[in-house]
Amino acid sequence: AQKITQTQPGMFVQEKEAVTLDCTYDTSDPSYGLFWYKQPSSGEMIFLIYQGSYDQQNATEGRYSLNFQKARKSANLVISASQLGDSAMYFCAMRGPWAGRRALTFGSGTRLQVQP
Amino acid sequence: EAQVTQNPRYLITVTGKKLTVTCSQNMNHEYMSWYRQDPGLGLRQIYYSMNVEVTDKGDVPEGYKVSRKEKRNFPLILESPSPNQTSLYFCASSSVLGGRNTIYFGEGSWLTVV
Predict the structure, then answer these.
(1) Does the pLDDT value for residue B89 go beyond 90?
(2) What pLDDT, in 10s, does the model give residues A13-71?
(3) Please, is A11 exposed, middle or buried when counting C-beta atoms within 10 Å of its C-beta (0-12, 13-18, 19+)?
């Protein structure tokens, strides 16, 4: 069974500073994908970044980067130069091998608040 | 622009009155899925579809039906809604082919059953 753990229920960060949101995962499948999503108070689920288990380099998307440490089974999200609009709930999720249901397993989320 | 569109975004309905939440994607994705999000329970998969006319149950399918007659559409049907189906619903789609493995979500549909 797959499991995602986000140990930080809430985080505060000052505007323009960097912040790291933690995510650890557990799976016995050698092939998997890791995602980060942002959910603002309006409710939509916004895709931020993806890391495949066989990707050699850490994923980056603009101000978002994923610190992927496969041996430690961690996939932390780093947001550089935080903005007020980054205040939201952040979810780490994992997809198993492409065969099968392709269901995403989500963590419990981290609520990030960016302070001016 | 890549989009997954759900309608309605907000709905209050009464117990037993059939309703359909529509989902449409413009990315020619084979795979589509429905999730519900509840406080303390996270997101749980309701149904999924690997392609046209291919659907299967997820983790919490009771009380729901789906159909996949066209590749772009994947409606969620509540034949006889009950208050325990009050939730935030998400439709998601992705390609099963090689390349970027992004799973896109719709904006969510807030459903209240009274």
Answers:
(1) yes
(2) 999 999 999 999 998 888 888 999 999 999 999 999 999 999 989 999 999 999 999 99
(3) middle
* Strand ranges across the sheet with B76-78: B4-7, B19-25, B76-78, B65-66
Region B65-92 average pLDDT: 97
Of B31, B102, B108, the CB nearest to A44: B108
Is residue B99 less than 8 Å (CB to CB) from chain A? no
| pLDDT value of position A99 | 54
- How many Å apart are CA A23 and CA B92, to the nearest integer? 22
Judge contact between B4 and B89, C-beta under 8 A.
no
B104 close to A (CB below 8 A): yes
Strands B19-25 and A33-39, by their bridges, are unpaired
- Does B34 contact A at CB distance below 8 Å? no
Which residues of chain B neighbour A50 with C-beta distances below 8 Å? 100-102
With an 8 Å Cβ cutoff, is B97 touching chain A? no
pLDDT at A31: 85
